[in-house]
Amino acid sequence: MDQIESILQRPKLYNNIDGVGELGTGFMLLGFALLSWLQARSPAGAIWHRMDVFAVWVGLMLLGIQYGSKAIKTHITYPRTGFVAYRRRDSTGTAAIAFVVAALVAAGIALAARFHWNSALHLRLTTPVADFGLAFAVAYVFGFARAVRWKWAVVGAIAVCSAAVAMLPEHMLGAVAGDASAVGGISGVTAGAWLLSILAYGAILLISGGISFVLYLRHTQPPTQAVA
Amino acid sequence: MNQNIQRIAELDRVIHEPGRLMIAALLYAVDKADFLYLQHETQMNKGTLSSHISKLEEAGYVEVVKTYRGKIPQTLLSLTPAGRGAFEQYRKKLKEAL
Residue B6: which pLDDT band, with cuts at 50, 70 and 90? Predict the structure, then answer.
């Protein structure tokens, strides 16, 4: 029975066999990091703070990721190892559910840290960001790491980065965020922690996805004749 | 014990064969997949895979659609509602028997 269950999981794991899922998520996070940096480094009236610019930015990122992923799948993955159309209910994804559950748990921990444990102001401000990172690591386990053993190192890297960013000295985080405290009431420490976190997660996913993609190309052969 | 043996005898023989079980399980988890994907996952050669697919198709469990992806011929496979039902029944009976 276990073997049947394992076969039933294989198509879901096939989705990221080429690392495209991670590359897409990595690009998205780096895009958000760049936008956050531009917002933090520009005065309050700059275009980077406008909602329509934000919408266009997100739209362009999503279009790029959608068509980029589609191009890789169509021209590289499907001709090499085959095409799969997923059932609609699978597309919601266990990873998304895991992220929501983990985020709720993380929010609980953040509130506890804030009100019950009465921790230092700096850690109180950065705990939600670190918790987001831990929730992200849990989602990564369900989304990507179950398929390949070495990806557990990526989970560790995400968790370590989250903790490291939360513990960075206040002045460093404030320096990263620049004038963020002047915008929308967000503290410079929180903005700096957020910016550094998504930058780190984006870079980690991009590297991990890139390694998966190279390994995929090495271990699969391009088709020599028409597909049956 | 006797009942368990009887349950094993009641298992759907079309699906029970390991190669076909693998194909049915893979197709059960997706909407549709092409021949190349099944070949990649099952590691069967084209002839063996075709033969198993033909048996599943004869039983009405698998639908085979020949199409093109650009200029390249593509064989798309999916489980029919009967195939989905048969696979679910098979899993249920196997669970009871074990």
Answer: confident
What is this model's ipTM? 0.86
Q: DSSP assignment of B21-34, as one string?
A: HHHHHHHHTSSEEE
CATH classification at residue B27: 1.10.10.10
Q: What single-letter amino acid sits at A17?
A: I
SS3 A214: helix
Measuring CA to CA, how many Å separate B24 from each of A84, B38, B96? 14, 10, 19
The residues spanned by each domain of chain A are 2-219
Q: Do A9 and B31 touch (CB under 8 A)?
A: no
Residue in A11, A79, A226 closest to B30 by CB: A11
**DSSP code at position B72:** E
Best probe of the B interface among A6, A12, A14, by most B CBs < 10 A, is A14
Taking the C-alpha atoms of A110, A113, A118 and A121 in order, what is their torsion angle to the nearest 10 degrees? -50
Specify the pTM: 0.79
Chain A 83-112, CB below 8 Å of chain B: which residues?
Answer: 83-88, 90
